[in-house]
Write a structure and sequence with these properties.
Blueprint (H helix, E strand, L loop, with lengths): L24 H36 L8 H7 L3 H17 L3 E4 L4 E8 L2 E8 L7 E4 L8 E2 L11
Antiparallel strand pairs: 1-2, 2-3, 3-4, 4-5
Length: about 160
């Protein structure tokens, strides 16, 4: 887990014992509204934890990344609910069968097959639908437009 989101013990990569789910573009698009809500919730909880961590670290005169989550939770027991909400959002995202690649950026990959090749359909928080794909070895930097999917409309 990234230190900027705190080490809460959450499982950032949900691993199912079942066979990997494969998504069509339409199936992936159908999950976008739910993912938007879950990632917004995840980011809000992470921001609250980060803010509390940073404030405590400043008070103690230490680097925020060196402050153990256990100490923060011991002094601010109400934050346990925030951690539970963070964990619940992460698990709900994983339960959809997708890979949360970066919580802060809201990057989500959907396992898929494109022209017989195992790839990821790639979506980022704020995008209205899934419009990109990348080879499993390439990651976000290798994102390419999905064939047949129109480009995003220009903001007005």
């Amino acid at each position: 887990m990234e230190s900027s989101l705190l080490d809460t013990g959450a499982s950032w990569r949900y691993q199912s014992p079942m066979r990997e789910r494969r998504f069509t573009i339409e199936q992936a698009d159908a999950h976008v509204p739910r993912l938007e809500a879950l990632i917004e919730r995840l980011q809000r909880s992470a921001l609250q934890l980060r803010t509390e961590r940073d404030a405590m670290a400043e008070r103690l005169g230490i680097d925020p990344t060196l402050l153990p989550i256990e100490r923060l939770l011991a002094e601010r027991q109400g934050l346990r609910r925030v951690v539970e909400d963070l964990d619940a959002a992460i698990n709900a995202i994983g339960d959809l069968g997708v890979d949360l690649k970066d919580a802060e950026l809201g990057l989500v990959d959907f396992p898929a097959v494109l022209d017989g090749e195992a790839v990821y359909l790639c979506w980022q928080f704020g995008e209205d639908r899934v419009r990109f794909w990348h080879r499993r070895s390439d990651g976000f930097a290798g994102r390419q437009p999905l064939p047949g999917v129109p480009p995003a409309p220009e903001p007005q």
